Amino acid sequence: MQRLAVGVRSLYPNGLAVAGLVLTTAVSLPVRASEVLAREHNCLNCHHVDRKKIGPGFRQVAQRYAKHKDAAPQLADKIIHGGAGAWGPVAMPSNPVSKEEALVLARWVLAMK
Ligand code: HEC
Questions:
Q1: Element (H, E) at 35
Q2: Cβ(57) to ligand 1 under 6 A?
Q3: How far is the CA of 89 from the centre of ligand 1 (A)?
């Protein structure tokens, strides 16, 4: 019993390890959720992460908008309504996603740079 208490105390010297654990969970969960969303909504039928498919690679998108601070809501809008001209003449159709889902997906794409 005594030894266990010491072990736990040295594992979490000042709560930092616990905070780190909570942070990692909070950060990685939405990312995984976004990939599920992307699959559910067939984004990956037209997009690869690393290279062009029918639409641009998500990493290319992230790199292009890396310096645009309003990119997330703008891309979310485009994800909902579709459109052409940013990457070529082929249009993205509108997608049946909610505003919240579109924003989660836009942030997920933008995080790939
Ligand atoms: C039927 C094919 C298709 C599907 C399905 C599709 N996209 Fe696209 N997407 C495209 C094409 C084509 C473009 C390039 C449009 C352009 O040049 O303006 C594009 C562009 C984009 C862009 C960049 C927009 C810009 O203005 O730079 C993002 C972000 C994006 N798609 C995310 C998604 C997400 C998220 C989904 C799923 C909800 C999705 N796409 C589903 C074909 C598709």
A1: helix 16-40
A2: no
A3: 12
